[in-house]
Amino acid sequence: MKLAASLAMLVALVWAAAAAGPAVGAQGRPSAAQLESELVCPVCETTLDQSDSPIAERMKAFIRARIAAGDSAKQIEDKLVAQFGPGVLATPSKSGFGLLAWLVPLLAGLVGAVAVALLVRTWARRRAAPVPGRVLDPELERRVDEELARFEG
Amino acid sequence: MARRARLVLQGVAVGLVVLLLGLLVWKLVRSPGGDLAAAADRGDRPRAPVFTLPRLDRSGKLSLASLRGKAVVVNFWASWCIPCKDEAPYLEQVWLDRRAEGVVVLGVDAKDFRSDARGFAGRYDLTYPLAYDGPGATLPSYGVTGFPETYVLDRQGRVVEAFVGSIDSSQEHVRLREAIDRALRS
């Protein structure tokens, strides 16, 4: 039961991380800083906020211009993907082939957790089970009890 | 039965580890095409990877294979690349001077905004064919690591000469002219 609850919590956490929406600022408008941390410079392959290469600067200017024009974060990301391909996203997309990048670690974690749980249960049962052929002879047991009583008395 | 199942599972696990190690070694050893320029320098004439890309200068697509039979000067560039600005007028001149001989200058704009690339082409009055490769998908197969890079292909689509960097000195101009001559003779 505890195992099931833990697994459910793990699934919920990973799912929440995967389903997190695109960068939105305090006023409901996309945040340039957030977008720059989620998009990759196609030349230096670091996030835009880590790069000052000419193309990164150009992309930052594009992001600010599109925010000013009223685009949503998703629209800006889509426009950049249309120009530079899906590699411009720092995290894989949550649909199509990109979804695998989210699901595979989740499934691997689940399989690992189940395997560990099964192993622990098997080991616990093995330890609790009486060892056959190791039952104490009644006569010997009586003598041990007598010796113990004398020792304690 | 349990023992057999365990053996099978162990076999699968070992197989997976071996597969992953194999992939790692393959990735480390495999050359993404970066030897193209080195092979051309040795005079090997390696076959140029073919590609089909959307055109920048008009609608439709442009296939490198469709230019077979001509000497092709493939120039990888981007509008934000400063040395590209230095060589663009010279490449335009080469195109105008030698197109009648069967020479095609083909510009491949990569890792760039389409609108910026069109602005660049307009600013430098480029009339040679231009293709657009925003994600830079063609770059690894040629081993392009920076801009500009230029490859001269012969009539069979083999690399005669590679230029890493701008073709902006008289020495480089002579080298390009001689490479085009060799490409036309093939």
Q: Please tell me the CATH architecture of the largest domain in chain A by its name.
A: Orthogonal Bundle
Give helix % range of chain A: 55-70%
β-strand amount of chain B: 15-25%
Strand content of chain A: under 5%
DSSP strand count of chain B: 7
Fraction of residues in helix of chain B: 40-55%
Count of individual domains of chain A? 2
Determine the structural class of chain B based on helices, strands and strand pairing: alpha/beta
Describe the largest sheet of chain A: none
**Given this structure, which CATH class of the largest domain in chain A is correct?**
Mainly Alpha
State mean pLDDT of chain A (0 to 100 scale). Answer: 82
List keywords for this structure.
heterodimer; A: 153 residues; mainly alpha; Helicase, Ruva Protein, domain 3; 2 domains; 6 helices; B: 186 residues; alpha/beta; Glutaredoxin; five-stranded mixed beta sheet; two-stranded antiparallel sheet; elongated
In short:
The complex is a heterodimer of chains A (153) and B (186). Chain A is mainly alpha-helical.
Protein described:
The complex is a heterodimer of chains A (about 150) and B (about 190). With about 150 residues, chain A is mostly helical. Chain A has two domains: about 20-90, Helicase, Ruva Protein, domain 3; about 95-155, no CATH class. In chain A, about 65% of the residues lie in helices and about 0% in strands. Chain A contains six helices and no strands. In chain A, helix 1 (about 1-20) runs antiparallel to helix 5. The longest helix of chain A is centred in the last third of the chain and has 31 residues, at about 100-130. Chain B folds into two domains: about 1-30; about 35-185, Glutaredoxin. Chain B is about 45% helix and about 20% strand. Chain B has six helices and seven strands. Chain B has helices at about 1-30, 35-40, 80-100, 115-125, 140, 170-185; strands at about 50-55, 60-65, 70-75, 105-110, 130-135, 150-155, 160-165. At the A-B interface, helix 3 and helix 4 of A face loops of B.
